[in-house]
């Protein structure tokens, strides 16, 4: 006899605590601080839910959940000239870098 099980546990956002509280560690988009819950699904039907232990960061762009301790600083605003000059420089080699780059073309470090 063959038994097929389709299901698993996934995380879902329960409540947004702080919008744009940091940046995603993968895609560098704004990330929200959220309360989350874990959901057990059997054949894609939610069967059981339980809350997460502590607030985490959630990226709406790539749907990643990650701890607050790994969060990058929140995105800088364009009207602050110091923030613009900092955003256009590599934090390791201090060279000017285009704002759309994720890695420095000079030293190869993540921007």
Automatic annotation (TrEMBL):
<protein>
    <recommendedName>
        <fullName>Zinc-ribbon 15 domain-containing protein</fullName>
    </recommendedName>
</protein>
<dbReference type="InterPro" id="IPR053281">
    <property type="entry name" value="Double_zinc_ribbon"/>
</dbReference>
<feature type="domain" description="Zinc-ribbon 15">
    <location>
        <begin position="23"/>
        <end position="108"/>
    </location>
</feature>
<dbReference type="InterPro" id="IPR031493">
    <property type="entry name" value="Zinc_ribbon_15"/>
</dbReference>
<dbReference type="Pfam" id="PF17032">
    <property type="entry name" value="Zn_ribbon_15"/>
</dbReference>
């Amino acid at each position: 006899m063959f038994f097929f099980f389709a299901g698993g546990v996934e995380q879902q956002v329960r409540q947004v605590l702080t919008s744009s509280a940091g940046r995603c560690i993968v895609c560098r988009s704004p990330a929200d601080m959220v309360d989350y819950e874990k959901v057990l699904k059997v054949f894609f039907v939610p069967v059981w839910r339980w809350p997460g232990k502590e607030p985490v960061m959630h990226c709406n762009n790539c749907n990643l959940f990650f701890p607050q301790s790994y969060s990058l600083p929140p995105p800088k605003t364009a009207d602050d000239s110091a923030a613009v000059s900092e955003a256009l420089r590599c934090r390791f080699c201090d060279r000017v870098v285009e704002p759309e780059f994720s890695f420095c073309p000079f030293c190869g470090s993540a921007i």
